[in-house]
Design a protein that fits this description.
By secondary structure, the protein is mostly helical. Helices cover about 70% and strands about 0% of the residues. The chain contains ten helices and no strands. The chain is flat and about 40 Å long.
Length: about 200
Amino acid sequence: MSSERNPAGGIQVLLLKLHESLSDEDTRAAALRCHDIIGDLGQECMLTTTENELALQTSLLFSKDYGLLSFLRKSPASDEFRDTRVETLGFLEKFLDRVSPRVKGWEKTYATDIRDTCMAVYTKEKAAKCRTLVLELLIKVLQTTKASSVVAELRICDIFNRYYGELCQRSKLPDSGESSFYGPKPKFGLTLEWR
């Protein structure tokens, strides 16, 4: 019996199960299953030891067909799936912390897709809890790509105008979303400085 493990196999199976759960008619049960799968993906990805394994996991997690970005776009905008979206966004932010210094060129392949997904999820999701994590993931992408050639493709001014315009139109802003713009360390404003 071999002690070697297949790092891609487990992740690929989990991603397939995640997407299969979206077609389940019992949305509550599907949301709970998806939440558990995201936790399992997080554990599986923490076992990565080499750059090659990390690059392979990155390609699977950001796959256009069965990756996490696709899942975020396809998941219903229902309260049942909100915790799963929150968990997914948090996981992606932590995963980018591992990927950005170790996988060269990740931003050329995935940064624009992450940006587009963040914009779509922000539009779909109305809860501050999820929207705040969308902003944090987007800020993480902008911060980690600021020295890259891909930064022009991210259309930072469009992002800023969209989010800032929405914040200005609201009469009562949720503190969590507002803090990314105006808080003691306004992340989004700092991100725009290098534009």
